[in-house]
Design brief:
With 182 residues, this protein is of the alpha/beta class. It has two domains: 18-88, Ubiquitin-like (UB roll); 96-178, 2-Layer Sandwich (Translation Initiation Factor IF3), CATH 3.30.110.10. It is 32% helix and 28% strand. A four-stranded mixed β-sheet has the order 2-1-4-3. The protein has a four-stranded mixed β-sheet with strand order 5-6-8-7, covered by helices on one side. It is rod-shaped. The chain starts with 24 loop residues before the first strand and ends with a strand.
Length: 182
């Protein structure tokens, strides 16, 4: 057992351990204590941890009195790292996939891009569909808007329209988010 001032790790928050704990009274929790939520003096808690050959780790310094746990500090860090890794794995990473149309896109091309959008939305990604106008094609704004609205209405069972068609320069864009699966 070491008397570390404040133990630090690259990814974990800092924890006071052993002699670095400043509070005079502490609440002890954990598996290796007979009575859970036991309130002791710092000296008694350190003595108890020393007898067990483990570290006294301050878990919640803001609580009144601060909550500590008697545990091997390396094991504690390992458990925290493992818990953070599990939480990170559970979070869904969403990407925005882009699909480009021209104002006079054929039916076959439309179906091909529709199938790609269905795959993207079922994978949990957002889809940004846009019509790009080149040169004088900007005269066909209505055709581009109709195309995007047709695309959005076809994708209603897979995603919902977040943003109606917006013309930004030479691009008319919509954004479609995936529908939550039940």
């Amino acid at each position: 057992m070491e008397d570390n001032i404040i133990a630090k790790s690259n990814e974990q928050p800092t924890h006071r351990i052993n002699g670095a704990i400043k509070a005079e009274t502490l609440r002890l929790v954990g598996d290796n204590i007979e009575e859970n939520n036991l309130v002791l003096s710092r000296r008694d808690a350190l003595k108890m941890a020393d007898e067990m050959g483990l570290d006294l780790v301050e878990i919640s310094p803001d609580a009144k009195p601060p909550v500590c746990k008697i545990i091997d500090y390396q094991k504690f860090l390992y458990q925290m790292k493992k818990r953070l890794k599990e939480q990170k794995a559970k979070t869904q990473k969403s990407q925005v996939k882009e699909i480009r149309f021209g104002p006079q896109t054929d039916d076959h091309d439309f179906e091909f891009k529709y199938n790609h959008a269905v795959k993207f939305l079922s994978d949990g990604d957002k889809v940004r569909a846009y019509v790009f106008f080149r040169g004088r094609q900007i005269l066909f704004k209505e055709q581009g808007e109709e195309l995007l609205m047709k695309f959005a209405s076809r994708l209603e069972e897979y995603g919902k329209l977040d943003q109606k068609p917006i013309l930004e320069g030479k691009k008319m864009t919509i954004l479609i988010s995936p529908v939550k699966k039940k």
